[in-house]
Here is the input.
Amino acid sequence: MSRQPRTQNVTTDAGEARITWVPATTAPRLVLAVSHGAGGGIEARDLKALAAALPAHGVTVALVEQPWRVAGKKVAPAPKTLDTGWRGLWPALAAPGLPVVAGGRSAGARVACRTAAELGAAAVLALSFPLHPPGKPEKSRADELLGTGVPTLVVQGGNDPFGRPEEFPSGAFELAQVPYGDHGFAVPKRSGLTEAQAMEVLTGAVTGWLTSLG
Here is the structure.
């Protein structure tokens, strides 16, 4: 694979999806496939930070755009449709012949959790996992997170209204916190943290975890 970023369109049963490949700059050892949330795309600060940081550590980053985003729609479809798009992309993600870590932010994290076992993901990276709708902790989605069946890392903002780190149940997953971060990992000026420092916390946690996977 060339070391220059490239895009690949993939036809799925949910429509045309797109992968932006950011190849490892050292000997590639795994693929991290990450998708966006329900309200944004692969330009999200956390996805951009991972794509910038991880290739130097032997990780090829695959930034996945679901069909609804490629089609220019503004509202994400039902979870089942998101899962269908992700399943359709999986053969392309596995094509390099490397272990694939399934990941995403928010709604994309839920997709990765729900489908990891059936698709044979090596692990799951859940960024800003939406544990519950804001203000509705009784509507927990913890079962999705607890049911991945593979090593799982959650990276959560300390002030995420969709679930603060202390709200998460105990279980077979690791949790890293970006202090003061909201659902998009933005940090307030009064926190004393810059966005760059917040992203260093995030990329450092993910890099260390991916290294621990072997």
